[in-house]
Amino acid sequence: MHTNQSLKTLKNKVLQGGIYLTIRQLAASALSLVSVLVIARVLGPENYGVVVSAAFILYFTFWTAKCGLDVYSIRQPTLPKDAAEQILAFYNTVGIGLCVLLWFATPLVGAWTGQSVLVEVLRWLVPVIWLEMVASASIAMMERELRFPQVGLVETLAQVSNYAVSVPLVLLNWGYWGPIAGFVVQFTLLAVMASVCYPIAWRWRWQPQFIGSALRSGLAYSGSNLIWNFKTLTVPLVVSRLGGLEAAGIVGIAIRLSDQLGMLRIVIARLSISTLAKLLGDTDALRRAISRGIIYQGLLVGPVFALFSCCANWIVPLMFGKSWLPSTQVFTFVALATLLYTVFNMHISALYAAGHNRDVARFNAIYISLFWLAAWLLLPVLGAWGYGVAELFALPSFLALHFSITRLCGAPDYGDAICLIIATAIPLLAGPWLPFYISLSLLVASYSILFLARPTLRSIPLELYAAWKTPKPAK
Q1: Which of 43, 267, 433, 472 fits 48 for a cystine, CB–CB 3.0-4.6 Å?
Q2: Under 8 Å CB-to-CB from 180, ≥6 apart: which residues?
């Protein structure tokens, strides 16, 4: 059992780490948001839809092609001396083979979506897949050695190179080819810098016994994420087919806004698995940590989503242009779904920490199935709105997470979280339909009633301040 003092110390460490990670996350995302504003405003919804569709296919291929070997190389306690060389050899062979396969398969994407422009764009991006796989072999080994500052520098410089290329080219009327060129430059530079920082001898052969064992272990952890990654294909394969490239662009910007405004949820997500793993022997402490964590998660993103929704009717036309105004209505549904997923992310972290990967995979499969079915039915009727409404149709899948976590440590206390979601949903959903001053007043009233009615929520700012002021242990 954990003593009160040890739990308090652990909580302070988590809060301190969260505050510092929050500051770094805010700084890292600022440049990304500025570049998106410029690119989306100049390109317009249809051309931006080309970029979004191609990028989502690219990211899905990244995340699935590595088969969890990067996760395996980071988490495995002991590795053979030539493990990095074998993994790179596997990535070289599979990556190049996958590039060849995708080169010839791109016409199928064009035929399925009815958007022939995607064929040429995707073919230019095919080599990027192999470059990212090569880079990930070195980056994973650097993370294994806890060389996080070096990893952060490499990834940041590569990202900056993307913006340094794509934004000027867009302003020079290159259209959607500007961001495509940015992707190629980014991942070329990433592969070069990662290989320089952690050189790995190139080879083309690997030991099937080692790679087979590594694949089984890596997929055991990342398999559930592979299922979730299919959501990434919704925009290029479903929205662009049923709603067209303009709808894909509108949905893409709504997703991007939700990701950027909700970026602080990444902070607790990064800390939660390792933190909750320390509480696995104490079910009461684990349940209390989850109950508290879901409130922190909700407070990190809920008020930001609601405030943006209230201001969206004049912020979006000002920043992006009037043609992007429909994205504000899609954003409300996407943001609400993101808020609920953020709250339940504590359940996912606890299940991962306990090794219950199948429970997470089951939830992901249910969510994606409901979401795709609803999107397929609603997009022809509602257009871009159909994507946002489909997110809400998939929400019953969260019951699977609740039942799984209840079996692990008992049912968490959802009282504060439910009140927070309701207080957020009211101004969030009403924001785009009301004048600014009315929606903002609704937001203030909603949260005022929330904090007056729930004393435990009022204590959270004091906890954050206390954690920030807690003296740091001497090195």
Answers
A1: 43
A2: 51, 54, 121, 124, 125
Given a contact cutoff of 8 angstroms between Cβ atoms, the answer to whether 410 and 283 are in contact is: yes
Cα separation of 426 and 303, whole Å? Answer: 11
Among candidate residues 258, 261, 259, 384, the one with its CA nearest the CA of residue 325 = 384
State the alpha helices, DSSP H only, in 114-263.
Answer: 117-144, 148-171, 177-197, 208-228, 240-242, 244-261
Q: Strand, coil or helix: what is 381?
A: helix
Query: How confident is residue 274, by pLDDT bands cut at 50, 70 and 90?
Result: low
Q: Collapsing DSSP states into helix, strand and coil, what is residue 199?
A: coil
**What DSSP letter does each residue of 39-80 carry, written as one string?**
HHHHHHHHHHHHHHHHHHHHHHHHHHHTTTHHHHHHH-S---
What is the C-alpha separation between 13 and 398, in angstroms, rounded?
Answer: 29
Which pTM was predicted? 0.83
Element (H, E) at 378: helix 357-382
Amino acid at 54: A
- On average, the pLDDT of the chain sits at 83
Query: Checking phi first, is residue 202 left (phi over 0); if not, alpha (psi -120 to 50) or beta?
Result: beta
pLDDT at 30: 63
Q: What is the pLDDT of residue 273?
A: 58
Two structure tokens written together for 185: 């430059």
**Cα–Cα dist 268/193, whole Å:** 29
